[in-house]
Amino acid sequence: MNSKLIFIDALDPAGASRSKFVAQNPRGDRISLEAHHDSPLESDPASVGLGPMEALLAALGSCTAVDVQDIMKKKRTPLSAYRIELEGIRTDTIPRRYSKIIMRHIGAGEGVTKDNLEKAVKLSFEKYCSVASSLREDIEFILEAQIL
């Protein structure tokens, strides 16, 4: 069995108005997190990073992105442009978990069709992406693919 280790350090252990953290793996790679980052359009100059729920969406998107790029390359239709837009719909009750996640994969490349991009997205999500497999089964997921 394989295990992962992450260290999370509080930037202000006394807990200022916003809890700010840095997560780091043993290699030293880091991501900044802020605990109360619920407003997607918030423009707080003191903000240091993603909220934990945003980080979850980023983890899901990047996990599927690795697979989709690999699958498309193996199909000999590599993506020359690619991005993922993720939208998480949260419940109103505590814990305010995601009840629906919309993942829009948008790509382009020579020979890339909507059909083969959709198949790669579905294969990644249903078979290869460990983040997707780790999420609750009662979250509704909507997977989309678009060609530029």
Description:
With 148 residues, this protein is α+β, with helices and mostly antiparallel strands. The protein has two domains: 1-50; 52-147, K homology (KH) domain (GMP Synthetase, Chain A, domain 3). The chain has three helices and six strands, in the order βββαββααβ. The protein has helices at residues 52-74, 114-128, 130-134, and strands spanning 7-10, 20-24, 30-34, 81-90, 98-108, 140-147. The strands form two sheets. A three-stranded antiparallel β-sheet has the order 1-2-3, with no helix packed on it. Strands 4-5-6 form a three-stranded mixed β-sheet. α1 crosses α2. It starts with 6 loop residues before the first strand and ends with a strand.
Could you list the spans in which at least 5 consecutive residues all have pLDDT below 50? none
> What strand line-up does the widest sheet have?
1-2-3
Please give the count of helices.
Answer: 3
Query: What string gives the helices and strands in order?
Result: EEEHEEHHE
Integer count of domains: 2
The CATH class name of the largest domain reads Alpha Beta
What oligomeric assembly is this protein in? single chain
Mean pLDDT across every amino acid position: 87
Helicity, in percent?
Answer: 25-40%
Beta-strand percentage? 25-35%
- CATH fold category name of the largest domain: GMP Synthetase, Chain A, domain 3
Provide the CATH architecture of the largest domain: 2-Layer Sandwich
